[in-house]
Amino acid sequence: MSDIRIATAEDQVLLDKEAKYCSYGDTVHYIEPPRIFSRCEGSYVWDTEDQAYLDLQMWYSAVNFGYANPRLNNALKKQIDTLPQIASQYLHKGKIELSEMIAVDAKNKFGLDGRVHFNVGGSQSIEDSLKVVRNASNGKSLMFAFEGGYHGRTLGASSITSSFRYRRRYGHFGERANFIPFPYHFRGPKGMTKEEYGSHCVQQFARLFETEYNGVWDPKTKQCEYAAFYVEPIQGTGGYVIPPMNFYRELKHVLDQHGILMVSDEIQMGFYRTGKLWSIEHFDVQPDVIVFGKALTNGLNPLGGIWAREELINPKIFPPGSTHSTFASNPLGTAVGLEMFKMTSEVDYGAMVMAKGKYFLEGLQDLQKRFPIIGDVDGLGLALRCEICGPDGFTPDKATLDYMVEEGMKGDMVVDGQKLGLILDVGGYYKNVITLAPSLEISYPEIDLGLKLLEQLLVRATKR
């Protein structure tokens, strides 16, 4: 095991400048000194010392199709040479065709007519969705959301994100959320199957509508004070928690009974991360609104958006000027998004991702058998979780995971004579979960490599 790494003289100059000139508002230094990266390709990034790191989180699932994907990069380059920019109030082919692809796909899958509205990223698209649901509900500003849910850090998005620390200094700006327990089976009541626990959580939610004295429902007028329920079908920052397959179907039944919209936040799990275009597809329900971002452009361009049912977003109810962003539906982003859809239509990404995810999960399950500190592993497609616990296999152990992350970033592990680092992401209610979001293009040998590197980190953690 190596000693603490020291930054090179060139890197230290840059780090000194960062410390003086850069806002820390969107900065998290997981290790000291922070690495400075110089290039990327496929599943790897290299730092300024040309040390390679296998990346198993891919920019929080924004780079689903691998770093520097040649086909998507070329689509961007081609668009730069034709129509690189145009004001968002003007039309261009990419905006129209990308909207059509998303809307037609939703019609085929959910049987619902709808429209697409673009913005520059996930949080901004959450803001637009809040406008849509508030408008459709005559201005209701109360929302349901999940404990462990994450929807962004703009003022509106942070109000429906369960972490108080994101809004502690800023207060609320309009929206407020009632946070409902998510069916986190590993930490749920003992003695229930996963499906039984899912039904139990729905039943507990449904109790809010049994009497007016639960504070959300007026039985005389049949009206709810809450406009929508914001869900991440698979919790992202909350630790890639996979709910029971019966859960959303039963939840949606309760929502429909009481006129509450379901908004599916697909920002982190969309675009085949779970083996389907939208992760909500696994659960046999029809969402009213879908919010997307991140991997739409493989991280090459800040573009996100929403799809909403026709009744919620048609021009009569959501007219021109309802919302606006200077760079929304920009031609560079829509060109990459179109190419991504074409690329995924030519290869069965669903089957490919599910097969790779099964293989990776089996490897994690093997590690779990050999290392008692792994309390839980689970996954859907290539959204995988590995929960690090104490010796009892249950008590959350954030300190050990922090140690593993730091060791992975030292870049001193050796597999088959190759020195490598490993990039992991930390999530979960107790910040003790490795949330694995590898490239969908990851090869089976790279999965094996990732498992070997994880094993080395687990060995270090148990011997320290």
From TrEMBL:
Q: Which UniProt keywords apply?
A: Aminotransferase, Pyridoxal phosphate, Transferase
The record's listing under CDD domains reads: OAT_like
What InterPro entries does this protein map onto? Aminotrans_3, Aminotrans_3_PPA_site, Class-III_PLP-dep_AT, PyrdxlP-dep_Trfase, PyrdxlP-dep_Trfase_major, PyrdxlP-dep_Trfase_small
Q: Kindly give the Pfam families that the UniProt entry links to this protein.
A: Aminotran_3
Q: Which GO terms describe its molecular function?
A: identical protein binding; pyridoxal phosphate binding; transaminase activity
Keyword match Transferase: yes
Q: What cofactors does the UniProt entry give for this protein?
A: pyridoxal 5'-phosphate
Q: PANTHER family of this UniProt entry? A: AMINOTRANSFERASE CLASS III (PTHR11986), LEUCINE_METHIONINE RACEMASE (PTHR11986:SF58)
Could you say which protein family the record assigns here?
Belongs to the class-III pyridoxal-phosphate-dependent aminotransferase family.
Q: What is this protein called in UniProt? A: Adenosylmethionine-8-amino-7-oxononanoate aminotransferase
**Which organism was this protein described from?**
Pseudomonas libanensis
